[in-house]
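Sequence in, structure out. First:
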Amino acid sequence: MSPLAATTVDLARLQFATTSIYHFLFVPLTLGLGPIVAIMQTRWHRTGDEAWLRLTKFFGTLLLINFAIGVATGLVQEFQFGMNWSVYSKYVGGVFGAPLAIEGLAAFFLESTFLGLWIFGWDRLSPRLHLATLWVAVAGTWMSGYFILVANSWMQHPVGSKVSGGEAQLTDVWALLSNRFALYAFTHTMLVALTMGSLFVFGIACWHLLRGRNVDLFRRAAALALVVAVPATVGNMVVGSRFGLATTDYQPMKIASAEALWNTEKPAGFSLFQIGGFTQSDQKPSFVIQVPKLLSVLATGTLTGQVEGINEVNKGYQKQYGKGNYIPPVRVTYWSMRVMAYLGALMTLVALLGAFFYRRGTLEGKVWFLRTAVAAIAFPYLAATAGWLLTEVGRQPWIVQGLLKTVDANSPSVGTAMLAVSLGVFVALYAALGVLDVVLMRRYARLDPPELERAAEPPVAELVPS
């Protein structure tokens, strides 16, 4: 068995993977929970119903805990570009720097500034203006997500640029911002975020319903969460399948390795489960359960479409880019794809069953389902992690598809000893932050929503019939 990290590049990759995956545990919840909290406050603003204000403050506290720890982990992640990946930073700075600068100087400051106004403006701003600060902060988080995904999608499918003097230079900013890969990635990620936020709210509501506490209050929270979760989960399954078409066009190796498809097939089936067949020396699985033609549908949009195999794509890359092995870790991409897809289906089922039971008025009586909903809080986290593994590992050996290999992109002056020490420090700090996050989120999620000291109602002139 080969060691997890044998070289400087391996250590740099492991460190960036650790910080990125950890950071992304917080990002989707901020993106998805923010608009739900904003809707709760909007309901209070429109109806004057105190219950919605209590829910706003309850879930708003959880949002702020998640946001604070997410920001701390994200700052560390960006420092690594200059520290561990200086060759990469110099190569892509003319393109990659633009969306990151916009994200940092515009979107992030927008969201953090207006979130601060929301936190401290409860008794200082008018209800309408205070509500607007939260919606602006939510818009800022979504803008931030878009520009980050624009940068990442350029690495997956470089557009609007050219290589000059050994460095990538931006030639068409509109092509960069409207990258087809980025549009699919943004839509997919935002739906993942809404799924995570809604199942988070639904799971906590179901926990309180199990204990018979604040039943009327958390029944409202559950209903709102389901209104978001049902279209988000169903829509993401559709968008995810369409995303496969763009990936086939730009990264055929990723599609082939996600299926462990070694040889071209027409039509191509999708294996639900297989044993073996994940290496060049073992290309035929010893056991497989397959759905005929499904991969052709996902990859080409037709029942009879041809899907190129790993061997054929690798030969094509060798002709185009020179000798070498262009095959990513097949086992990782294969199982990442299935963990993501299967959990996506489970989340859709939970949302649909929840809506069905709520509609029939039997949700509180389904103890087994309430417990399942609490457990389902973890599903989006696992699915999102698997999705990023598929996205990033499936692109290897490229750090920028077709332009720069990962092995050529690290900082030559940073040695293995420094990387090993910093990796250990990061792991220890992140473990401590993880424990802190779980303790705080668990503590505040188990509390009763705060009672209001006075009747907090917006001015009568601002009330609008719901």
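Second:
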Amino acid sequence: MHDRVQVAVIGGGISGLNLARRLSAAGVSFELFEARDRLGGRVLTVNGEGAPSDDGYDLGPSWFWPRLQPALAELVEELGLASFGQSSDGDVIFERMSREPAQSYSAVRQTPESMRLSGGSAALVRALAADLPGERVHLNTSVTGLALREDGVRVDCRDGAGAERSIDAEYVAAALPPRILEATIAFSPEPEPGTAALWHGTPTWMAGQAKFFALYETPFWFAAGLSGTAQSMVGPMLEMHDATTDSGGAALFGFLGMSPAERQAVGEQALTEACIAQFERIFGLEAGRPVSTLFKDWAADSLTATTDDLVSSGHPAPAPSWVHGPWADRLILAGSEVSPHEAGYLAGAIEASDLATAEVHRRLGQRGPYT
């Protein structure tokens, strides 16, 4: 770890990786700190046992829309990543009431089409990370404090073994949700009350969500003329979709419609049984016999959600400026939540980090490709 760099990047999700990759290509020195033992943040692709995988199921974000999100589409093309369309052929099922059977309806082809990356969304993580010098990327390393100095910022961090160290940076780019930034890092001086309130009041996308997957030997719903898409007013899942991988790993998944507190009270085992029973109601007896299941409650992930996210979730709103007062000269927010147009989405991570890259170039007085 270098003792002084031009930019300290906090967070190794899509936004932090894209920012670091852009800075590295421009010759800007950086150190990237990620508290998790993996890169990707809320992007997490796993196999049937729940372990991170190069070809699996997305427990976090999965879709992107090339026609509506050209910057992300261009990056996917630049990185040479393959993609495929979300299943939309076949009927859609609606479950309106518990006392009546679910009904099938002919689907209307989605326009614009939602796409998924071959291998899962983690393919984007791997491609972005591949261009970074490994010695500048620090996993299992939490930034614990930021102290403003006349010529920059002292960045205090702690690794997984508890060892503490500080570096000096001209600028800090916080590529993590504002609410997590406010809750986990000690500032000296403290941010202005209005800035702290803005960060605290900005919900983190996915923080209140939970996804359930059922994996099968074959995607039998296709043979039955079903798309794998279903909506329910009964629950526990309100929205369900096909999650079959590009390589043929058959799966269905659903977003749970229960609050984080309700999920915690019910427990994972009971939720698993209820979700399997719902898939069986909607897709038939074969859906009640999955090979394995996966469950991810992002509200239980301390690096994604705070206690405030348990009661305040959803898409964050744009703000004219995210940092005020003395920190405005040294701190740049770069997480997906601060994206002006795609807050919380994968495309938002790209937009926010590209804007942060341009701001770094401006402040360093360099003419990079994003100035």
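Remark: Residues 65 and 113 are 6 Å apart (CA to CA).
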